[in-house]
From TrEMBL:
<keyword id="KW-0443">Lipid metabolism</keyword>
<dbReference type="GO" id="GO:0008654">
    <property type="term" value="P:phospholipid biosynthetic process"/>
</dbReference>
<keyword id="KW-0808">Transferase</keyword>
<dbReference type="InterPro" id="IPR050324">
    <property type="entry name" value="CDP-alcohol_PTase-I"/>
</dbReference>
<keyword id="KW-1133">Transmembrane helix</keyword>
<keyword id="KW-0999">Mitochondrion inner membrane</keyword>
<dbReference type="GO" id="GO:0005743">
    <property type="term" value="C:mitochondrial inner membrane"/>
</dbReference>
<feature type="transmembrane region" description="Helical">
    <location>
        <begin position="216"/>
        <end position="235"/>
    </location>
</feature>
<comment type="similarity">
    <text>Belongs to the CDP-alcohol phosphatidyltransferase class-I family.</text>
</comment>
<keyword id="KW-1208">Phospholipid metabolism</keyword>
<keyword id="KW-0444">Lipid biosynthesis</keyword>
<protein>
    <recommendedName>
        <fullName>cardiolipin synthase (CMP-forming)</fullName>
        <ecNumber>2.7.8.41</ecNumber>
    </recommendedName>
</protein>
<keyword id="KW-0472">Membrane</keyword>
<keyword id="KW-0496">Mitochondrion</keyword>
<dbReference type="InterPro" id="IPR000462">
    <property type="entry name" value="CDP-OH_P_trans"/>
</dbReference>
<dbReference type="InterPro" id="IPR043130">
    <property type="entry name" value="CDP-OH_PTrfase_TM_dom"/>
</dbReference>
<keyword id="KW-0812">Transmembrane</keyword>
């Protein structure tokens, strides 16, 4: 019955028996469902690409995150510090490639890069708290903020997406495209979080002095303040825009 209905619909369309407004509505739905990337200007085509160098680097950083966390839990701080340094350098590298190499900046990358960063930072905060390197209250603030950001991002995506709703269209960057644009405070917070993790992880490796550890504590306080402030900015929707 379904096959017969589908065939009848196709015949009616091919012979232009359907009313014009129904044919136009069907055509608009198909264009919304799958925009023709080839019809876009060359500088715009990369926005919908998945296989890019920055995305591959982000995927590698995500894959390395559990290993770094495991090393911290096992108190193997020296190799953990080395791998974390490489991961931080890869974050700078994929950002530079996306900004400077034509066709490498994508909508997926604008989402995948902060996700990879947050996964790495959250893993480091949790495992380093387990190892006694970062206080639990600060880790709780960081993790709560990230969970709220993820939940808020999914809700914002649902808000800006046009019907019909499905998982395939929800995760399709070509449908109701949106982009995550970090705020200045968020960038400062990311730098502070990475610096705190790097210094706290380096402390047992290089046997920091008491004064150095007190400076790390002050850095943790600044990190807590910027974490809360940038989280409120994301909650207001300033970092997400519809394209």
């Amino acid at each position: 019955m379904i096959a017969s209905t589908t065939m009848l619909w196709g015949v009616l369309r091919s012979h232009r028996i359907l009313p014009r407004h129904l044919m136009l509505s069907s055509r608009r739905f198909q264009e919304e469902k799958a925009p023709k990337v080839k019809s876009l200007p060359p500088e715009e085509r990369g926005r919908y690409k998945v296989a890019t160098i920055p995305n591959a680097i982000c995927a590698g950083r995500i894959a390395a995150t559990p290993l770094i966390g495991y090393l911290v839990v096992q108190h193997h701080f020296t190799p953990a510090f080395a791998l974390f340094t490489v991961a931080g350098a890869s974050d700078l590298l994929d950002g530079w490639i996306a900004r400077n190499v034509p066709g490498q900046k994508s909508l997926l990358g604008s989402v995948l890069d902060p996700v990879a960063d947050k996964l790495l930072i959250s893993t480091m905060f949790i495992t380093m708290t387990h190892a006694g390197l970062i206080p639990l209250p600060l880790t709780s603030i960081v993790i709560l903020r990230d969970v709220c950001l993820i939940a808020g991002g999914f809700y914002k995506r649902y808000q800006v997406m046009s019907p019909p709703y499905s998982l395939n269209r929800f995760f399709n960057p070509q449908v109701s495209s949106m982009q995550v644009v970090p705020t200045m405070m968020s960038k400062i917070n990311t730098v502070l979080q990475l610096s705190l993790v790097a210094l706290a992880l380096a402390s047992p490796v290089f046997d920091f002095s008491v004064a150095a550890n007190e400076a790390i504590f002050a850095l943790g306080c600044a990190t807590a303040v910027t974490t809360v402030y940038s989280g409120l900015q994301y909650a207001s929707g300033k970092a997400i825009k519809k394209l």
